[in-house]
Amino acid sequence: MGADLILYTNPMSRGRIARWMVEETGADYDIVVLDYASTMKQEPYLSVNPMGKVPAVVHKGHVVTECAAICAYLADAYPEAGLAPPVADRADYYRWLFYAAGPVEHAVTNHAMKFVPTEQQQRSAGYGNYDLVVDTLERAVSAHPYIAGDSFTAADVYVGAQVGWGVQFGTLPRRDAFIAYGERVMARPAYQRANDKDNALMPPPEPGGEV
């Protein structure tokens, strides 16, 4: 491998978010596709991420895991791509990037698992409750063309992936604001390239399975 950037992933994972972000940077990169049942849970990958989960990136020897962190890191590592606002203008950028990684991720996961916190538990849960999280996210994606203002940023990669996935698979309601925002960010050439490359890595359907 000769590139400064290595992406460890699987096409049926959150690695699709990282691939999209990598494609947005325009950087050369190498890719290592890992299998859930074997290589993801073995060395040498466990030396990269002891959690045995993807994605991870290694950039010039530095390991970064967690999709929101990967997005923020790569935006700074490749400033020529223009994927992060100037430092003085990063309030909404950081706010909504980590809102999606924290409250949205937790609320959606718990909702899908049929866990509904009691009123008392909502005081301790960082996200409060699912409806509050969804309504707040809807207002955020409706306020501007992109999550941090008028320009696309790395935050839109992560938030856009969460919204697009949520609407597609029913973990978020099909509200007009979510659909419009998802379509806007996923029309980007980098998303299309990443999606095509990951789709090409998907296993073929089993004989007799659904087409």
Description:
It contains nine helices and four strands; from the N terminus they run βαβαββααααααα. With 211 residues, the chain is of the alpha+beta class. Strands 2-1-3-4 form a four-stranded mixed sheet, with helices on one face. The mean pLDDT is 96. Helix content is 51%, strand content 8%. Helix 1 runs parallel beside helix 3, helix 1 runs antiparallel to helix 7 and helix 7 crosses helix 8.
User: Which structural category fits the helices and strands?
Assistant: alpha+beta
Question: Low-confidence parts, pLDDT < 50 over ≥5 residues?
Answer: none
Q: How many H/I helices?
A: 9
Give a count of the beta strands, DSSP E runs of length 2 or more. 4
State the separation between the terminal residues, measured CA to CA.
Answer: 36 Å
How is the largest sheet built, in terms of strand order? 2-1-3-4
Proportion of strand residues: 5-15%
Order of helices and strands: EHEHEEHHHHHHH
**What's the rounded overall pLDDT mean?**
96
**Range of helix content:** 40-55%
Biggest pleated sheet: 4 strands, mixed
Mass-distribution shape: globular
Rg result = 18 Å
